[in-house]
Specification:
12 strands; Rossmann fold; 32% helix; six-stranded parallel beta sheet
Length: 262
């Protein structure tokens, strides 16, 4: 995107941690007259490199984020966090309200079941795990590292747990196995994995997008039941579905500023 260079640079804070954020960061790094910072929570040990300056760690709630927006003279706030990062997204809505900084969220479409899928949907990670049979089963968990404590509350199962960074499993999960791997994953490989481990249930969050959809397709191929966690509610905000649409929204703000001569 080519922006007029007579105006002050547009300062953007991009809340990241997703593929969409990485794509937008790449586009923003190339754009003229934009000063953008990528913000990460710091959950993964080796986040993918970015050409944008990066800051890592929480802001201290919505008030802390509002202070940051003011101090850094941020013009636009873009929330490209994961659909399950509901706290950060709620904080972004509140901080945008406090400061009047325009907010845009990139929200990828949720997955919907297709023919052959055998999903049972739940409102929380806890509910999805509690609904597993009481007898021991072979279960794949794609719920992420934050669900490990919840898995410990149903310790009778043999879990195959996939997370991004290696970690030591708690002793309650002595019969379980950990795989540390970063997507995107391939359907054929996930199907082989599920067959090798005789998986009967897949635990998944409805993340949407392509990077982790392989486990859903593999479950469909093998007739495995998926316990799917629905997305958490997030306060109303303006949303788009892609980094391209976010760039168009940013360009509109840039033009508005240059029309005003600021
Ligand atoms: P969360 O529960 O909504 O956030 C908890 C706290 O972490 C926030 O209140 C904030 O702390 C801090 N935080 C979250 N995202 C941040 C960001 N991009 N920059 C700075 N601080 C951030 O979020 P979460 O579910 O723990 O996810 C953490 C990060 O991992 C997110 O950036 C998300 O995009 C990414 N991620 C999450 C999932 C998932 O399944 N939840 C999956 C893939 C990637 P303060 O209140 O102190 O500001």
């Amino acid at each position: 995107m080519t922006m007029a260079t007579t105006t002050k640079p547009l300062r953007i804070l991009l809340l990241g941690g997703t593929t969409e954020a990485a794509t937008l960061a790449e586009r923003l790094a190339k754009a003229e007259n934009i000063e953008a910072t990528l913000s990460l929570a710091g959950r993964t040990a080796n986040p993918a490199a970015s050409k944008l300056p990066m800051r890592v760690g929480g802001f201290g709630g919505s008030d802390g984020l509002a202070d940051y927006l003011r101090q850094q003279k941020i013009d636009l706030l873009i929330d490209a966090t994961h659909p399950f990062a509901a706290q950060m997204s709620a904080n972004a809505v509140a901080a945008a309200d406090i400061t009047n900084v325009p907010l845009l969220a990139i929200e990828r479409q949720a997955w919907t079941p297709v023919e052959g899928d055998n999903w049972i949907e739940y409102d929380s990670v806890d509910a999805a795990i509690a609904a597993l049979p009481s007898e021991p089963e072979d279960v794949f968990s794609g719920l992420g590292r934050q669900a490990i404590d919840a898995l410990c509350r149903a310790p009778q199962h043999r879990y195959l747990i996939r997370v991004v960074d290696p970690l030591e499993l708690p002793c309650e999960l002595i019969n379980s196995e950990l795989i540390a791997a970063r997507g995107p994953f391939q359907t054929g490989e996930d199907a082989r994995l599920f067959a090798d481990y005789n998986i009967r249930y897949v635990l998944a969050k409805n993340a949407g997008g392509g990077a982790t959809y392989a486990k859903i397709e593999a479950a469909r191929q093998l007739g495995i039941t998926v316990h799917m966690v629905r997305r958490p509610a997030i306060p109303d905000r303006k949303t788009v579905a892609s980094a391209d649409e976010a760039m168009a929204w940013i360009a509109t703000h840039h033009r508005a500023r240059s029309d005003l001569g600021v």
